[in-house]
TrEMBL record:
Catalytic activity: CDP-N,N-dimethylethanolamine + a 1,2-diacyl-sn-glycerol = a 1,2-diacyl-sn-glycero-3-phospho-N,N-dimethylethanolamine + CMP + H(+)
Location of this chain's protein in the cell: Endomembrane system
UniProt source species: Mycena albidolilacea
GO molecular function, one term: diacylglycerol cholinephosphotransferase activity
GO cellular component terms attached to this protein's record: endomembrane system; membrane
Name of the molecule in the record: diacylglycerol cholinephosphotransferase
Keyword annotations from UniProtKB, A to Z: Membrane, Transferase, Transmembrane, Transmembrane helix
Regions that span the bilayer: 50-68, 80-99, 173-197, 263-283, 289-309, 363-384
Entries under InterPro entries matching the protein: CDP-OH_P_trans (IPR000462), CDP-OH_PTrfase_TM_dom (IPR043130), CDP_ALCOHOL_P_TRANSF_CS (IPR048254), CHOPT (IPR014472)
Membrane topology: Multi-pass membrane protein
Cofactor(s) this protein requires: Mg(2+)
Pathway: Phospholipid metabolism; phosphatidylcholine biosynthesis; phosphatidylcholine from phosphocholine: step 2/2
PROSITE patterns cross-referenced by the UniProt entry: CDP_ALCOHOL_P_TRANSF (PS00379)
Length: 420
């Protein structure tokens, strides 16, 4: 112990998961499937093992994509991947969603429900978020573009909003249309469509696709590509989620007699972190090269995603331990220094100090990736170690059976179906 304070560890006993899911699709279609699916898993399989298995499938999908398209160009650069890769991404994401949905059910079956599962579940979700942005943007034929950057910002913003809302309200709220349910199913469909028609399908104009190019008045509208139209619609979704999350937070603050505007200030850490990353990307084209147009774009996004996972991981830890909301992140200093170095031609009319060549910039980007991985890995290791030691549990091991043949801390086997 040592990373989490003694008082914060005591607060773990007060934690209880609360969730609301308003999705009819989840209630009437997916949840019955998940309730059946969890019964296929033996009681000796730990919930966190299921969660990690789902993330491992996504890692495999990601590795496969980079194997066939290592420079992240998709059809735009003449790289044509086998169709089965997109189908595997579709199946992989469906399995990830299913595994992510049943880990909580398995936790209740085995008596392992608690704050560690909450931390582990959200941590895997945070890493999956960036990986799916990269893969989905490739499937949409966006590749190295500002649309992919916008997708990263929008997706991370949704995740941050959900975590911010849960911290202030004490419950995870999923509306009639939410990212973890309908949003994931849409991405699954995108992968499947790209598997049938290829990523170039998404460059088709929306009016052309709908056969409206000869309809008077309508044909005067811009024939926006399907991928651009999808991204534009997603932007409105982020705006809607922002006001919906704040409405829930405001209601909770009023009920508790607390200020309703102050929570909005805690959205600034995300704005600052995203702003620093974009600042690095928009640097002048020194030596006729730009980070967003290079093969370093994917490792850059991965480093960004790991820093984000660390950021929201600390938010979730603050939630389960009832400690103050984390505001400062030391990785900002490193990323800002890199961004300033890249922008020296604009800021000081001089060449960058480090990023003077593609080789130097590659070294810096991969070093940033390594530091981001190390920081997040250290956080996960220390938090898991503190919680497991304090609560007397193991991360990937289910508690032993008692003398009556039941798992310690779980419901009796006769109640297993009810609990699941």
């Amino acid at each position: 112990m040592g990373f989490i304070s003694a008082d914060a560890l005591q607060n773990l006993h007060k934690y209880a998961y609360k969730g609301v899911d308003k999705s009819p699709l989840s209630k009437y279609v997916l949840n019955p499937f998940w309730t059946w699916f969890v019964t296929l898993w033996p009681l000796w399989v730990a919930p966190n093992t299921i969660t990690l298995s789902g993330l491992s499938i996504v890692f495999l999908n990601f590795a496969t994509l980079l194997w066939y398209d290592p420079t992240y160009l998709a059809d735009k650069g003449g790289v044509v991947m086998p169709n089965w890769v997109y189908f595997s991404c579709s199946i992989g994401l469906f399995l990830y969603q299913s595994f992510d949905a049943i880990d909580g059910k398995q936790a209740r079956r085995t008596g392992m429900a608690g704050p560690l599962g909450e931390m582990f579940d959200h941590g895997c979700d945070a890493m999956n978020t960036t990986l799916e942005v990269i893969m989905a943007s490739q499937a949409l034929n966006l590749g190295r573009s500002w649309w992919t950057v916008a997708s990263q910002i929008a997706t991370l913003a949704n995740f941050y909003l959900t975590t911010w809302e849960e911290y202030h309200t004490g419950e995870l709220y999923l509306g009639v249309f939410s990212g973890p349910v309908e949003g994931i199913l849409i991405i699954i469909a995108i992968y499947a469509i790209s598997g049938v028609y290829g990523p170039s399908f998404w460059d088709t104009g929306m009016l052309t696709f709908l056969r409206l190019t000869n309809v008077p008045l309508i044909n005067q509208l811009p024939d926006l590509p399907l991928n651009d139209a999808f991204m534009t619609t997603a932007a409105f979704g982020v705006a809607y989620n922002l006001q919906a999350s704040y409405r829930n937070v405001r209601r909770a603050m009023l009920a508790a007699g607390k200020p309703t505007v102050q929570p909005l200030l805690l959205l600034l850490p995300f704005v600052v972190s995203a702003g620093i990353q974009v600042f690095w990307l928009v640097h002048p084209h020194y030596n006729d090269s730009a980070l967003i147009n290079s093969a370093l774009f994917v490792p850059f996004l991965c480093a960004w995603g790991l820093q984000f996972a660390h950021q929201v991981g600390r938010m979730i830890l603050a939630h389960v331990t009832s400690t103050p909301f984390p505001v400062w992140d030391w990785m900002w200093v490193w990323s800002l220094a890199c961004a300033i170095d890249a922008n020296l031609p604009l800021l000081a009319d001089r060449a960058p100090i480090i990023q003077t060549s593609e080789a130097n910039r590659a070294m810096l980007v991969y070093l940033t990736l390594a530091i981001s991985f190390g920081a997040y890995g250290r956080f996960c290791t220390l938090v898991i170690n503190d919680i497991t030691n304090f609560m007397g549990i193991a991360c990937f091991t289910v508690r032993k059976k008692d003398k009556d043949g039941n798992w310690q801390g779980s419901v009796p086997h006769s109640e297993e179906k009810k609990a699941s």
